[in-house]
Amino acid sequence: AKKWLKAMNLKVVKEVAVKSLEEALRAAKKMGYPIVLKGIVEGQVHKTESGLVKLDLQNADQLKSAYRKMLRLKMKPKSFLIQPMLKGDLELIAGIVRDPQFGPAAMLGLGGVWAEVYKDVVFRMAPLNKEEIFEMISDLKGQVLLKGYRGSKPVNMESLADWLIKLGWLALRFEKIQEIDVNPLMIVNGEPVAVDATIILKSDFHS
Predict the structure, then answer these.
(1) What DSSP designation does 1 have?
(2) Could you read off the pLDDT of 99-130 as tens digits, one per residue?
(3) What is the DSSP track for 11-62?
(4) What is the model's pTM?
């Protein structure tokens, strides 16, 4: 999913795929700590709940320990991703949900700690233009957080609009896409960056 987004000139977190502890240690050293380790299990979308994500690993010892813990899980990962630990000002959730009757709708909401507090998500039917997206953003209860708070940089609304327009285009262009989930879409220095993304295809059984 992240390769698709990258191909559409959307900002995606840097990552390196590895298959052994030695490769993981090499990649982390080259990238620079702190890092994030993610275990890849086919078909497993909710990595965090399954223990397949370890955040903010500060050194080689912490990485070794996290790596070995994941290998002891019931659903043992076949490969891993090493990512830098991004420090964002805000986490958003963006995506597409396809309604069987009306087609794809773009979704935008507050993520991270704010998701629990606000349960703040808005939807609009695709395709979307910038004006509709700016209206969508202004419908968020927590829109003030996007305008810069506690000295953080305001979100680049043009970049955020670009994300939603392109996600909508992707779902309209490929009818087999049932759902796109970019969570979190981290705001780093005002710019949205995908840290994790999933594309779910319709199964032929349902089509």
Answers:
(1) -
(2) 989 999 999 999 987 777 778 999 999 999 99
(3) -B---EEESSHHHHHHHHHHH-SSEEEEEE-TT---TTTTT-EEEEE-SHHH
(4) 0.87
